[in-house]
């Protein structure tokens, strides 16, 4: 990890297939990952679904 990376637990929510490589890397690092496989701006069309995914990924480490 870069020296400037925050000293905090990390998670990843993938909103589109374009970010699958980044989500794969996050999973390899042991980070909780949720994959919605929608489009990049899905958060503007379905904000509640994205908010629920964020809550779920926070719960994955038990410190939400």
Summary of the model, kept short:
This protein has 64 residues and is an alpha+beta fold. 41% of the residues lie in helices and 17% in strands.
Question: Can you walk through the features of this model?
Answer:
The protein is an alpha+beta fold. Helix content is 41%, strand content 17%. The chain has a two-stranded parallel sheet with strand order 1-2. 5% of the residues are buried.
- Number of H/I helices: 3
Strand element count: 2
N-end to C-end Cα span: 23 Å
Compute the gyration radius: what is it?
A: 12 Å
Give the overall shape, derived from the CA principal axes.
globular
The main pleated sheet reads as: 2 strands, parallel
Low-confidence stretches are none
Strand order of the largest sheet: 1-2
**Percentage beta strand:** 15-25%
Q: What portion of residues is helical?
A: 40-55%
Total domains: 1
Overall residue-averaged pLDDT value: 83
- Category from helices, strands and their pairing: alpha+beta
Q: Would you list the SSEs in sequence order as H and E? A: EHEHH
Question: What brief labels describe this structure?
Answer:
globular; 2 strands; 64 residues; 41% helix
């Amino acid at each position: 990890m870069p020296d400037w990376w925050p000293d905090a637990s990390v998670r990843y929510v993938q909103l589109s297939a374009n970010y699958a490589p980044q989500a794969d890397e996050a999973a390899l690092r042991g980070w909780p990952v949720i994959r919605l496989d929608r489009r990049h701006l899905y958060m503007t069309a379905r904000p509640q679904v994205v908010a629920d995914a964020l809550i779920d990924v926070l719960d994955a480490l038990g410190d939400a």
